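TICKET: design request
STATUS: open
ATTACHED STRUCTURE:
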């Protein structure tokens, strides 16, 4: 699984996101081709290598006619939906704009979807959002993660007037998305704006706050406009493959000894527990008090349904108590795939570790049905399915 992790060193803005995407190897022409599908004019984009502190990265800029009329987010959404962009890009871009709408409504204490925008109503907001989403589309990232964000400090002047850092729209996003913050790198009380509404909306809509385990392939840097003596004003994008963690610690083992419940009830309990989604279940014959034969029921279950399973066992069997232990289980990843064979499509179970297939097993019930219907031996069917699966998958 291909991952992208944004480490927000100097903060985040829409142009820094696009700079990091281009710095990762996506060309400016590719971004331009995607943006051309919006069918709008009055802007040009540019990128170039530069430095912030000791870090070399890509600075992305949008040049546009400042005399163009401002738009609202509904206008941006209409432009995106009327474009010939891929549907996935349209959907994600509109999600970002809808998040910005919610933030602006909170900041302005308004329920209107047509409120007057100033900086965010200019064309560079549309370019930053759609360009970033299109860049992710080209990168084909399966998941996006991000670090905590620096809050910034001081005051800034915008078209609304002088406002505190973070700006009201950014502050609304921080609250709306429950964003983890950290102190700025500078000891000064005036580090300035380090996170913008557009940048925050893009990453919080498409990503999650988490540092994943990954095999690092490359690190790229998007540069912010401002220079700082206290920190490199850069946003880094780490790209790599996920490290498969095969340890599952959210499991418990439930055990109970039973000596006076008949076999029909025990069979019913077994069947119902499987249907409830337990991970594993088994009975073991044991000797109990007064030399009575009995069974020990053992169930491995997720903590999410632990109480539900306990209530069921207590209600359906004669046991008076259940032992509970937290356990750790190492698990290989499993998939079900359909394989084309002379018998039609047949399911096979695939065992995967470290992104490699290490075992393939024909699905028993499916093969059994084919053997009966076509008057074949089960072994012949399973051998044929396995051979086809190995050719297709290995």
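STATUS: resolved
RESOLUTION: sequence designed for all positions
ATTACHED SEQUENCE:
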């Amino acid at each position: 699984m291909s991952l992208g992790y944004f480490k927000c060193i100097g903060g985040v803005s829409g142009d820094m996101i696009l700079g990091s995407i281009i710095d990762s190897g996506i060309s400016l022409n590719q971004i331009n081709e995607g943006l051309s599908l919006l069918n709008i004019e009055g802007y040009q984009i540019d990128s170039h290598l530069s430095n912030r502190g000791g870090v070399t990265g890509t600075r992305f800029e949008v040049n546009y006619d400042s005399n163009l009329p401002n738009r609202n987010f509904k206008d941006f959404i209409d432009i995106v939906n009327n474009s010939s962009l891929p549907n996935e890009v349209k959907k994600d871009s509109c999600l970002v704009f809808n998040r910005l709408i919610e933030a602006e409504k909170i900041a302005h204490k308004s329920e209107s979807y047509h409120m007057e925008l100033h900086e965010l109503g200019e064309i560079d907001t549309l370019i930053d959002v759609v360009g970033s989403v299109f860049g992710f589309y080209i990168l084909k990232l399966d998941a996006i993660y991000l670090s905590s964000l620096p809050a910034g400090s001081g005051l800034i002047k915008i078209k609304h007037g002088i406002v505190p850092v973070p700006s009201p729209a950014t502050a609304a996003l921080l609250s709306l998305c429950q964003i983890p913050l950290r102190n700025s790198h500078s000891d000064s009380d005036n580090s300035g704006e380090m996170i913008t509404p557009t940048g925050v909306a893009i990453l919080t809509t498409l990503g999650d706050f988490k540092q994943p385990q990954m095999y690092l392939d490359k690190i790229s840097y998007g540069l912010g406009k401002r220079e700082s003596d206290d920190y490199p004003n850069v946003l880094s994008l780490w790209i790599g493959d996920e490290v498969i963690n095969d340890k599952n610690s959210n499991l418990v083992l439930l055990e109970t000894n039973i000596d006076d419940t008949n076999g029909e009830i025990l069979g019913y309990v077994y069947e119902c527990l499987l249907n409830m989604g337990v991970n594993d279940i088994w009975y073991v014959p044991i000797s109990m008090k007064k030399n009575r034969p009995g069974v020990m029921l053992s169930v491995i279950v997720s903590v999410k349904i632990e109480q539900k399973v306990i209530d069921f066992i207590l209600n359906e069997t004669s046991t008076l108590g259940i032992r509970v232990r937290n356990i750790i289980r190492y698990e290989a990843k499993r998939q079900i795939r359909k394989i084309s064979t002379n018998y039609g499509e047949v399911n096979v179970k695939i065992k995967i570790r470290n992104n490699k297939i290490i075992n393939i097993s024909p699905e028993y019930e499916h093969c059994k049905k084919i053997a009966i219907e076509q008057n074949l031996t089960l072994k012949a069917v399973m051998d044929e399915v396995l051979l086809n699966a190995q050719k297709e998958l290995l």
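CLOSING REMARK: The mean pLDDT is 88. The first strand starts at residue 2 and ends at 7.
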